[in-house]
Amino acid sequence: MQTMSGVIIRRAQPADMEFLLHLLRSLFSIEKDFTFNPVRQRAGLAMMLVGDRAILLVAEKETRVIGMCCGQLMVSTAEGGLSLLVEDVVVDRPWRNKGVGTALLTALQDWATKNNVLRLQLLADRSNTAALKFYHTLKWRKTELICLYKR
């Protein structure tokens, strides 16, 4: 999918791994709940590259990955069908506020529609005001839920 100024949105490939890790390092530097660990993140990305229950998209400009987003299919009892958990959305700093993130999420939503997904959902760091403003602009709504986790 061609977008603004020659930016292409496409499925990620194994050859993109180093760029993807660079983007995750950037993302995890602002998220308080996660620590960048290239071994773990490489393993997670590799799992998302295979199978049909997840999608990993990249934004590419002149053969360089400048953004990524990914999602995983889940069954939602509330919806009575599939939902898509959006796992990571990140755009390289020089490319922010240029429509790349919007293009990535639009492509992700198109994939979700083709896969009969009824709802998209994501978690965002409550202190990442730029991301929260971005999602609000795209009509994402807050819930009354909180996220809990256990290892």
Topology:
Layout: E1 8-11, H1 17-28, H2 38-48, E2 54-61, E3 64-76, E4 81-91, H3 100-114, E5 117-122, H4 129-137
Parallel strand pairs: 4-5
Antiparallel strand pairs: 1-2, 2-3, 3-4
Helix pairs in contact: 1-2
SSE sequence, one letter per element: EHHEEEHEH
The helix content is 25-40%
Strand order of the largest sheet: 1-2-3-4-5
| Contiguous uncertain segments of 5+ residues | none
Number of individual domains? 1
Spatial extent as radius of gyration? 15 Å
Cα-to-Cα separation, first versus last residue? 38 Å
What is the CATH top level name? Alpha Beta
The CATH superfamily title: Gcn5-related N-acetyltransferase (GNAT)
Structural class: alpha+beta
Total helical elements: 4
Major sheet size, sense and barrel closure: 5 strands, mixed
Total strands: the figure is 5
Average of pLDDT: 93
Q: Architecture in CATH?
A: 3-Layer(aba) Sandwich
- CATH names the topology as Aminopeptidase
Shape: globular
> What fraction of the residues are assigned to beta strands by DSSP?
25-35%
Can you characterise this structure?
The protein has 151 residues and is α+β, with helices and mostly antiparallel strands. The protein has a single domain (4-121), classed as Gcn5-related N-acetyltransferase (GNAT) (Aminopeptidase, 3-Layer(aba) Sandwich), CATH 3.40.630.30. It has four helices and five strands. Strand 3 and strand 4 form a beta hairpin.
Quick structural summary:
The chain is α+β, with helices and mostly antiparallel strands.
Write out key terms for the chains shown:
five-stranded mixed sheet; Aminopeptidase; 151 residues
